[in-house]
Design brief:
By secondary structure, the chain is α+β, with helices and mostly antiparallel strands. It has 4 domains: about 180 residues, Nucleotidyltransferase, domain 5 (2-Layer Sandwich), CATH 3.30.420.10; about 100 residues, 3-Layer(aba) Sandwich (GIY-YIG endonuclease); about 130 residues, no CATH class; about 80 residues, no CATH class. About 40% of the residues lie in helices and about 15% in strands. The chain has 20 helices and 16 strands. The chain has a 6-stranded mixed beta sheet with strand order 1-4-3-2-5-6, sandwiched between helices. A 4-stranded antiparallel beta sheet has the order 15-14-13-16, with helices on both faces. A 3-stranded antiparallel beta sheet has the order 8-7-9.
Length: about 600
């Protein structure tokens, strides 16, 4: 697609003076480094005169813009613009711009290419910036130009934060110009108002030093509506490294309040003190925080894993996720003559038929209900004997239980019809359970019992979600050692050593150097991880899932592996599409899924 500006003539009537172009920074406007000092930042101060209507792509009658950096004027752009509509009389009285002045002026679609070139690589400044920026964005959208989305600094908002009512009664441009004694007085003409705004901007920047604001990013955030607590505590973000890792907000007694992770610790922590952070619990946390501790990590995977382990170890009060991994539960098939499903906190070494882990007891019970709908597992909690009988419950009378309590079924038949499908579903193929649940959904939907069908559908989703997850975990945790690598953003390789689903070591090889010596050094100092029982023997399920997500990325390469990494060919993974439908669709979508 060609650039629309290429076919539009340059603005003949614009006064365009550009100086010292060779010395300007070449960072993109929207990507101007927020850490750039204010004295080194290029600003374009702009002011518009309009017909007074809404920003609909037209209505601009005059543009004035001044480019400055470090107090030096670098360029000026000023032009009248023909809005294509009559000018209201009150606008003429206010600005002095008449209809006759605008007839020979170029339309906005001819002015935009020069203006967009002029503001390139700069921070846009305006007084009441939303008004001016709104007109400019609408004009770009109407005439097919891409708005460059520069960083924007509003001098009116900045003045509200810097100046008190005792200093100025209001934040109008005329009032601020008088207070700062600007060389040019605003008079509702675009260029003069822009020049006055330049002096106001410099006066405000001079006041920012007392607020410990010295970068363009800090100035933009300072102008926004941050809370007094954020402003008072923003020094906590100083001196942090711009590297991947974990950050810990600590209270006065050194107690961890909140643990987070980021690919850039400094930038992420700084965001907690901006107007974009509006969470009430985080505001409460910032009020109690006294310092921020940074834990540097080799790469993002190590940072994510360290975050999980720190949250699990300290349970910070302001973290909501990943706390208390020990509260995970399992759905276990009991070891008795007529086994049943039981929700337990821990697995014993002798347990061989189980499903999980589940994040809550309710999730485990929902999956159990799915198995009870599909296979005739008993639901009573009595311990049954092979020799003596017990009275049957109502489920037996309804035909939903084979009544092993009355010995209507032998232990061998019960195992074949009820227990074996659970074992098979959890370790390899859940086809029997899936078919039974789909058949039940089909019957209920055909009878227009849609609410009951939806309940069974949710149980099917719970069964599939748990079986897919556990088989995926088992595939990795059964591997004694796995080494993987991924290209680092700035060269070199991100390396990870995984043992039984636990991150045992991590590092980054330098650019231009073979990664093998780094990998061997990681292996020599890596954590020793012994095998254990269950699908997640030596790490939390969340940690192993984070590792799996990292390993499954297209750019990750397997370097070494101690044994095969595989999933059952007829395993639960082949039902991922069905799981997605069960989670997101209606029951009628599932009636055609039976094999």
């Amino acid at each position: 697609m060609s650039d629309p500006a290429a076919s539009v003539p340059r603005v003949a009537r614009a006064e365009y003076v550009q100086e010292a172009l060779a010395g300007l920074d070449r960072t993109a406007g929207a990507g101007v480094d927020p850490a750039l000092p204010l004295y080194a930042t290029t600003f374009v101060v702009v002011d518009l005169e309009t017909t007074g209507g809404a920003p609909d792509g037209g209505g601009i009658t005059e543009i004035g813009a001044v480019k400055v950096r470090g107090g030096e004027e670098l360029g000026v752009l000023a032009t009248l613009v023909n809005p294509g509509v009559p000018i209201p009389p009150f606008i003429t009285v206010l600005t002095g711009i008449t209809q006759a002045m605008l007839v020979p002026a170029p339309p906005i679609e001819q002015v935009l290419p020069s203006f967009l070139e002029f503001i390139d690589d700069a921070v846009l400044v305006a007084h009441n910036a939303p008004y001016d920026v709104g007109f400019l964005k609408a004009a770009c959208a109407k005439h097919g130009y891409r708005w460059p989305n520069p960083r924007v600094l509003d001098t009116a908002a900045l003045a509200r934060r810097v100046l008190t009512r005792d200093e100025v009664p209001n934040r109008k441009l005329g009032t601020l110009a008088a207070y700062f004694r600007t060389a040019t007085q605003p008079n509702h003409r675009a260029l003069d108002d822009a020049k006055a705004t330049v002096d106001v901007l410099h006066g405000l920047i001079a006041r920012l030093g007392g607020h410990r604001v010295d970068t363009v990013g800090d100035a933009i955030e300072f102008a926004r509506a941050v809370t007094p607590t954020q402003r008072r505590k923003r020094h906590l973000a100083e001196g942090l490294p711009k590297v991947p890792g974990v950050y810990i907000f600590r209270a006065a007694d050194d107690r961890p309040l909140y643990v987070g992770t980021s690919g850039d610790i400094a930038t992420r922590v700084r965001s907690y003190f901006t107007a974009g952070e509006k969470r009430a619990r985080i505001s409460e946390m910032l009020a109690a925080a006294e310092r921020v501790e940074a834990v540097e990590c080799a790469h993002s995977l190590e940072a994510e894993v360290r975050e999980l382990r720190l949250i699990a170890a300290h349970a910070p009060p302001y973290n909501r996720r990943s706390k208390y991994p020990e509260r995970m539960v399992w759905l276990k098939l009991t070891d008795e003559a007529y086994p049943r499903l039981s929700v337990v906190r821990n697995l014993a070494p002798t347990d061989t038929a189980y499903l999980g882990p589940f994040r809550s007891k309710q999730a485990a019970e929902l999956a159990a209900a799915g198995f009870h709908d599909a296979v005739p597992l008993r639901q009573c909690t009595h311990r049954l004997s092979r020799r003596t009988t017990m009275p049957a419950c109502a489920l037996a009378e309804l035909g939903r239980c084979p009544a092993p309590c009355e010995h209507r079924i032998t232990p061998e038949e019960y195992d074949d019809r009820a227990a074996a499908p659970f074992r098979t579903a959890t370790t390899s193929d859940p086809q029997v359970v899936v078919d039974a649940l789909l058949a039940r959904i089909e019957v209920l939907a055909r009878d227009q019992r849609y609410e009951e069908a939806a309940v069974v559908r949710s149980r099917l989703a719970a069964v599939l979600r748990a079986t897919v997850r556990m088989q995926r975990l088992v595939g990795l945790t059964g591997i004694a050692e796995l080494a993987a690598a991924r290209r680092a953003a700035h060269g070199g390789w991100e390396l990870a050593l995984v043992r039984h689903g636990r991150l045992a070591g991590a590092g980054v090889s330098p650019p231009g150097v073979h990664p093998r010596p780094t990998l061997e050094a990681i292996r020599a100092t890596a954590e020793t991880v012994l095998p254990g029982h269950g699908p997640v023997p030596r790490a939390s399920a969340e940690e192993t899932e984070r590792i799996l997500s990292w390993l499954e990325r297209a750019e990750t390469r397997l370097v070494e592996i101690s044994s095969g990494w595989a999933s059952p060919i007829t395993g639960a993974g082949r039902f991922r599409d069905l799981l997605a439908k069960a989670e997101n669709g209606g029951s009628h979508q599932l009636s055609t899924e039976r094999s």
